[in-house]
Amino acid sequence: MSEHMTFDAPRLSVPDRALSSARMKVGRAAWAARYYRSFSRDAVLAIAEAVARAGYEKAGHFADLAVAETGFGVVEHKKIKNELCTHTLLDHYRDLDLVTPRIDAERKIVELPKPAGVVFALAPATNPVATVYYKAMLAILSRNAIVISPHPVAKSVSVAAARHLAEAAEAAGAPSGLIQCVEEPSIPLVQDIMASDRINVIIATGGTAMVRAAYSSGNPALGVGPGNAVAYVDPSAGVDAAARCLVDSKSFDNSILCTNESVVLTLDSNRGNMERALRSAGAHVCNEADTDRLREYLFGKGSLNLAAIGKSATWIAERAGIRVSPSARILVPVVATPGQDDLLFREKLCPVLTLTSAVDFQQALTFAKHTARRGAGHSAAFHGDDTARLVRFSQEMPVYRVVVNAPCSQGAAGFATYLPPSFTIGTGFAGRSSVGENVGPQHLVQWTRIAYGKDVPADLSGIDLSAVSTDRATARAPVAAPPPERESFDRDALRQLILEELRSLQGAGK
Q1: Are 95 and 234 found together in one domain?
Q2: Global pTM exceeds 0.85
Q3: 37: domain range?
Q4: In 3D, which of 504, 475, 439 has the Cα closest to residue 93?
Q5: Annotated catalytic sites, by residue?
């Protein structure tokens, strides 16, 4: 009996293949990062150009795959976002030199750039391809390697997009393993990799729980929080222009961006004009009954109905039992009293824009501050020409971006303003984040500063900095990185397998 029990007992504990594969990707990335950190600025820009070109060429293809896989958003709009994360992003940072050492002879300081090393990046389901493009470009420009963990809902298109960029990078001279993507993401896998001592920095874009986990991992992290942007329309604004901005912004990619407006606020004296202008711009302004139906559909169980995320206004209206025109671009529920904690004042990643009004600017500002705390540190919008109110609004709102007379979705993300183009919007101290800016490649490089004493003679002209970066106009030929990714067992598991097999052979010989 004992022999049968021994024979039937499992003889091998098979390791988690997905986790083993992810750990090997991190190992390859560490090798690639060490090799890439000495590339010259010309070599870096050559690789970035190749990746931008490759990403742009397949922006539409991956947009179509993203919508098909996730069910979120609009193909044409995702194509635009993907394209913006190629040449437009590169052009914005082209003159930012994160490679060349800097010498300040007057202050007797020499600055040496130090890339982070291996970046572990989380990508959300809402903007899967644009985020892959964007974070890969940031890593390239800062001479880092990157391992991307996609959302499980968007893993196929994310992996395909990352592989496409990696191939373009390697063809341009980048080391193998510079851009990689986890094929089978899971919460345990992400937590394990985030805590790895081979990860040098984490860029966390996603839900609050995952961002907090990144900060608790023990590794440096750049995390961002959710948005809940309030748009204030002052009586000094051109109401028709403001309404067009709001509808264009809220309907863009079915409002899947965290920078999109959640609530539009005006004064009581201006609300009638606002409703008229919104209708003219393509919005369906809800009556009281429609507002109640929409609130029940979106928040009937206390939190946002996930089925509505990234769906069209007509799709949502049909399921909420609201009759709308087939041409309706957004839905506008109207909440008369801004002081109440209505569920419709929360973030809505769908084309639903809540309209409310206040008796005066002070009440509007009080309500706006209260509402923005649910997306603290993120973004807001101001429509109007009253600069005194604009400054007061910007100073008192707990946000780090205020978009003026432009769509907030595109403006806060840097595509309709001169803010840095970004798909990782830092929420700073207000949002419990380590960065309050739009995250860029400069956040992935730190500098060692060689500082001579103020009263000590120093001749900096003879300092040789050639070892900091190679003096090549083009990148090196691609070099394969060890170990091979197809290996699925680590060494401990292999030892265990051999021992178990030896034991079984000894038992068979008895």
Answers
A1: no
A2: yes
A3: 17-224+440-462
A4: 439
A5: 258
